[in-house]
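User: Can you model how pyridoxal-5'-phosphate sits in this protein?
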Amino acid sequence: MESLHRPTRIIVHKKAIQENIANELARLPKGRELFAVVKANGYGHGAVAVAQAAIAGGATGLCVATIDEGIQLREAGFTEPILILGVISPLYLPLVAEYQLAFPVGSLAWLTKAAKFLQETPVAQPLLVHLKVDSGMGRIGFSTPVEVSEAVAKIAQIPQMVFEGIFTHFATADEAETSYYETQAQHFADCLAILDQLPRYVHCDNSASALWHDQPLGNMVRYGVALYGLNPSGGTLEASYPLQPALELVSRLVQVKQVTAGTGIGYGKTYTSSQDEWIGTVPIGYADGWIRKMQGFKVLVAGQFCEIVGRVCMDQIMIRLPQAFPEDTLVTLVGENGGQRITLQDVADQQETIHYEVACLLSSRIPREYID
Ligand SMILES: *Cc1c(COP(=O)(O)O)cnc(C)c1O
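Assistant: Here's the modeled complex, given as structure tokens:
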């Protein structure tokens, strides 16, 4: 549930999303389409608003992880192609038909089950199938060209199914070393070569592949994390255009107090003031996804970095201020403040993880606001 009556907010800049898409489209070979990946509530940014910005920016389709995420977009009024990226149960074929959600097929056993199910439960609308090739991710998909051609033959026997796409996913597109990437690309090319006719969509690029590889295969890219202005490599590789971060995380000081030397702060008294200090309380905590590992990180108040002191609580943190700031002063946890900047990558470094995870785990308690 969103907590609206509290100053903690995620602010999403739609312009940044549109700029990132425009820059990517300018980089891509002419005619290649861009589907915006808005799974996991738009990587925590808000799926519907991100999808709107992405379509306005030139995306011609959307990708989600689950059926429910697809339905959410249809109910919000999107009529563009929507592709589910995860395996669905054959039991839900009537649902994906009804909402015209394309979905992946990655095994012959799945096709057999689906065919059987459809004999008893016919569906009225076409089922939009994208064959998934496992070219080296070891996740979902057919492993060999022979399996792919068997799948195509099987799909042709199921009257409700339309062979709309074929795709694969790269495991190392964000790395400087490209040999495994090239092995995967070759494997995918081998699977395409066996087809008499290519389907409407052929796609293999995620953000990293779209940014750093001039991939001759495919006519569409699945553009995810870079759409949000985040570098898929975490900074190891530089993007060929400046990625514009879309997300800001802000709050306000709800109390400011001066403590004397020797005062304990927070659960477990893990911090003790060494002199007279100004301590500010900020209403965000681990229940918002601002996890306990953020202890010791610095947030921005009036352009100055202020350390989070004491343990992160469920709903609050305490920060050491260089001076007495008035209550209600803006606190920036991610974003720019007074000429200084904190990025999701900085937060990820502190948490020893990747920015994808940080963004996704910002909880639904924090309201998302959108700026054009
Ligand atoms: C999540 C996902 C993407 C997008 O990846 P990014 O690294 O965010 O660009 C593309 N394709 C598949 C299959 C995915 O699961």
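A couple of observations from the model: The chain has a mean pLDDT of 97. The pocket of pyridoxal-5'-phosphate is lined by residues 37, 39, 85, 169, 206-208, 222, 224-225, 232 (CB under 6 Å).
User: Helpful, thanks.
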